[in-house]
Amino acid sequence: MAFMDCHFFSESLGVSASMHVILPQSTTGQIGMESNVIKKKHPTLFLLHGLSDDHTIWMRRTSIERYAAAYGLAVVMPAVNRSFYTDMAVGYKYWTFISEELPALARSFFPLSEAREDTFVAGLSMGGYGAFKLALSCPNRFSAAASLSGALDIASIAKQRDPVEFQRIFGDLDQFAGSRNDLFQLAEEVAQGEGPSPMLYQCCGTEDFLYQDNVRFRDHCRALKLDLTYEEEPGSHEWGYWDQKIQNVLNWLPIR
């Protein structure tokens, strides 16, 4: 695998932005690394960080480079600060950045496939919310999405944490339900639509403080008969759990 620490100017944010990128590489002499290149334009996983992290965290806390190598999978890991992957009410347009600008820029810099069947998204905690938001908002562009310990029920989480911060991100929280930021609403629209529906993978540890929120979203998706794979087992909100589960995600992805 090749690793790039990429810094570039974002038109939608109006500031310089950052991402880590790992790309498949055909090698024969590299020790301890299985390498696989499937095609000239690589299937791609957009891998999203959590609330207190940045674009470096997946490389620092897991062996994502080693795991992805066997699948011939490119991985793009962008930084979005504490934005919840949203055009913030007070702040920057991170939804525009993550949904429109970043994929286009990454594909202009690197040989990444533009095909829906080769495009996936995953994330942990806040990034789990962002992954499902991307796939459910843009089901014609993402074929699969995975949430690890995702912050999926924002209305519930905002009441438990700092509502002032969530108001700066989402605006009036009384108007959140049914909005374009509400995953429950987005899931209903995908279920009722005539277009493609992404495969969804969701996991959460039973000792995680977000467990009940995950159960509510799981039950909502099951009632809508969405294509959801759900896993739970003992575990909390920590990197040992996510390092294990991201391996499950890569094995689950429909990589051609």
UniProtKB/TrEMBL annotation:
In terms of superkingdom, the source organism counts as: Bacteria
Looking up InterPro entries in the UniProt record yields: AB_hydrolase_fold, Esterase-like, Mycobacterial_A85_antigen
Pfam families in the record:
Esterase
Q: Which residues cross the membrane?
A: none
Give start-end of the signal peptide.
Answer: none
> What PANTHER family has UniProt attached to this entry?
DIACYLGLYCEROL ACYLTRANSFERASE_MYCOLYLTRANSFERASE AG85A (PTHR48098:SF1), ENTEROCHELIN ESTERASE-RELATED (PTHR48098)
This protein is called what? Esterase family protein
